[in-house]
Amino acid sequence: MLEAVTKKYIDSSTEEQFEYSFFCDCCGKNVSTTRYSFKPGFAKKLFLSRTEQRAREIIWQRDHDSAYERANIEALKILNRCVLCGAVVCGDCTVECEETGGKTVCLTCAKEHRYRGVIWKDNDETVSVDFGNETKTSGIKPHQYGGIKK
Ligand SMILES: [Zn+2]
Ligand SMILES: [Zn+2]
């Protein structure tokens, strides 16, 4: 079983369908992926023989695994991976930074490194951010833009 793309995810699969939700590593926003119904390939009937039941379980397990893989791939398309810390975050928490040549960085890293950049909000709005001018610091030396100060 491969590791989930986000730190937190929920498997709400049932006997009838497969469903996974992922959560932004930064703000915890829920990202739902496509639901798939389980089609074991048996004719629908009320009672299955022991062998059929066992077969159904095996097929379910196999389909459950591939649904999980598919959900992870889908989540990665919706979310972005931070090039610095590897966190997988939603659009609202993704900053395209000047300092990284437009590569995506999570909001936490952008703040930590006092980067400047653009956030492409999930509603297609863009917001410019500049953490270089923030006075608040957590023990990290501020970036010195434009060379060393004398
Ligand atoms: Zn987020
Ligand atoms: Zn990061």
Give a nutshell description of this structure.
With 150 residues, the protein is α+β, with helices and mostly antiparallel strands. The chain has helices spanning 50-78, 107-112, and strands spanning 8-11, 17-18, 20-23, 30-32, 36-37, 80-81, 88-89, 94-97, 104-106, 116-120, 126-130. The protein has 2 domains: 8-78, no CATH class; 82-133.
Rg over CA atoms? 22 Å
Portion in strands: 15-25%
Our count of helices gives 2
SSE string, helices as H and strands as E: EEEEEHEEEEHEE
What is the tally of beta strands?
11
Bound compounds: zinc ion
Q: Which overall shape is indicated by the principal axes computed on the Cα atoms?
A: elongated
Strand line-up across the major sheet: 9-8-10-11
Q: What does the largest sheet look like? A: 4 strands, antiparallel
Give the tally of structural domains: 2
From the N-terminal CA to the C-terminal CA, the straight-line distance is 55 Å
Low-confidence stretches: 135-150
**Mean pLDDT over the residues:** 86
Helix/strand structural class: alpha+beta
